[in-house]
Amino acid sequence: MPSKAALLWDESFLWGLIAYRALKGRSLDFSLVTSADIKQGALNGRRLLYVPGGWASNKLAALGDEGAQEIKKFVEGGGSYIGVCGGAGLATSEGIGLLDIKRRPLSERVPSLSGKIRARVVSAHPFWDGIRGECPFFHIWWPSQFKPADPSVKVVASFEQAAPGAFSSDLNVGSVRNWEELEAEYKLNLDPARMLNEPLALEGAYGAGRVFLTLIHPDTPHDSNGAKALQNLWMHLGGEEKKEGAMSSPFPLFRGLLAPVEELFDIGARNFLWFREGWTIRWRRGIRGLEYFTLYELVKELARRVGRSGMPEGRPGGIESLIVELRGFTEKAERLLLLERRALQRGEPLTFSKASDPEMAGLRAQLFSSAKSHGGEFKKVLEKVDGILYGYLKHDG
What we know:
Blueprint: E1 5-8, H1 14-25, E2 28-29, E3 31-33, H2 35-39, E4 48-51, H3 56-76, E5 80-84, H4 86-91, E6 101-103, E7 113-121, E8 137-141, E9 146-148, E10 154-162, E11 167-168, E12 171-172, H5 179-186, E13 199-206, E14 209-214, H6 224-236, E15 240-241, H7 255-270, E16 274-277, E17 280-283, H8 289-309, H9 319-345, H10 358-368, H11 376-396
Parallel strand pairs: 1-3, 1-4, 4-5, 5-14
Antiparallel strand pairs: 2-15, 6-9, 7-8, 7-10, 7-11, 10-13, 11-12, 13-14, 16-17
Helix pairs in contact: 7-8, 7-9, 8-11, 9-10, 9-11, 10-11
C-alpha cells in the first residue's frame, strides 16, 4: 500500500535530508515526492504532506500555479499540511495561502538566530505530549517570523529565550553583553530578546484540512524534544508508523565522490572560517558556510548510497560526470576561501554583498551569484547532487 504521507523534496536540500533522516529515525511512514509528482496527482489518496525548510520562494517557483493548486485542493479536501520554517513560509498568504498569516519584513526580524532556544507552551496541543516543562528546549535555524492576521489561527508555541550556546549571525549569544552596539555595527537586528513572545508554531484550518506551521525544527538531529514533537504531529495529523523499523545503519562511503568536497571542507576548517558544533557548523560572517555545509552533507549521503549499492540498473547515473563537476567547483571555491581568509586577516569586513578584492568579487558572483538564496555554479552542482540523491533515496525506500 502507498504511504499515507509525503515529503516534498524540491528546493529543500540540507533541510530535506535532515527531515528524511528524522522521519526514518522515528519509523514514520512516508514517500518522497517532487513538485512534478504533485502536479501529476501524487497527493491523491494521501493524508499528510510534510514540507521541510528551504527558501519558500524557490519552492513556490518549483511548484508553479498548478502544483500550488494541487496542494490547496489536497488540504481543502481534508488533507493535513506540516510546514517547517521555509515550508511554513510557503503556506502563508505570501505563498500558497493556506493560512491568513504573513511573515514579518526583514527589517523587523532577527534573521540570523540559530541553535537551541526555549519555547513557551501557549496552547494545549498534541505537539506537547510527553514533553516536560513550561518552556522546553528546541532548535530554530535562521527563521522568518510570523505575523498572524486571522484570530482563528491557534498559537501553539512562542519564543521565550535563546540558550547561551545559540548564535545570532556569528555571535555566541552567551558571550554578548551589548546587543545595541553590535546591531549598529552589523546593521542588523541581532538581539534574541526582540523575539520574546513571538509565535513559533501555529495550527489553523483550510477547508476541511489542517495546517501546522512551525519555525521550530522538530527534525533537528540529536534533539529528543524535537523528535518526540515530530512523532506527535505525525500521528495527530494522519501519518502512520512504518512497521519494518527505523533507518538502517550507515553505509560505507564511496570516497571518490566525497573527496573533492571533503578537501574543500577541511580547508575552511584549517583556516578558521568555520568549526563543527554538534550536527552542524558555525562560520564567520560573510562566508558562505551554510552552502558549503549543505553540499558536503548531501554529497556524503550520496557517497553512502553509492558505497552500499554501487550504480546498478534502476538507480540514477551521472556519478562520473558529477565528480568532474565537483572538482571544478571546489577548485574555484578553495581559491575563494583563501582570498576571504586574507581579507579577514587584513581586518576587512565581509558580507554577502561586500568584497573589496576584484578577484574575490568575481569568484563570488560566478560561484554563488549575488543573491542570499542559492545561485551560480553552486546551485547547478547542488541541483545535480540533489537529483541523483533523490533517485537513490526513492529507489532504496
